[in-house]
Amino acid sequence: MMRMCLWGSRMEKELDQEVAAFSTSIQEDQYLYRYDIWGSIAHSTMLQKIGIVTSEEHQKMVTGLKQVGEEIETKQYDVSSFEDIHSAVEIRLKELIGESAGKLHTARSRNDQIVLDERLYLREQVVAIIRTVNALQESFLKKARRYRDVVMPGYTHLQPAQPVLFGHHCMAYFFMFQRDAERLQESLSRINVLPLGAGALAGTSLPIDCQLVADLLAFPNVQDNSMDTVADRDFLLEVLSDLAIASLHLCRMGEEIVLWSSPAFQFITIDDAFTTGSSIMPQKKNPDVAELIRGKTGEMVGSWISLAMTLKGLPLTYNRDLQQDKLPLLRAVEIGRLTFHIASRLVDHITPNIDKMEQALQVGFLTATDLCEYFVTLGIPFRKAHEMVGSLVRKLSSSGQTLHDLAWEDLQKEVEGVGPEVIEVLNEKKSIQRKKSAGSSSPGELEKQLQKGDLLLAKWNEQNTELEKTWASSFLALVDIPKE
Ligand code: ARG
Question: Domains of the chain, with CATH numbers?
Answer without folding.
Answer: 8-106 (1.10.275.10), 111-360+451-474 (1.20.200.10), 368-427 (1.10.40.30)
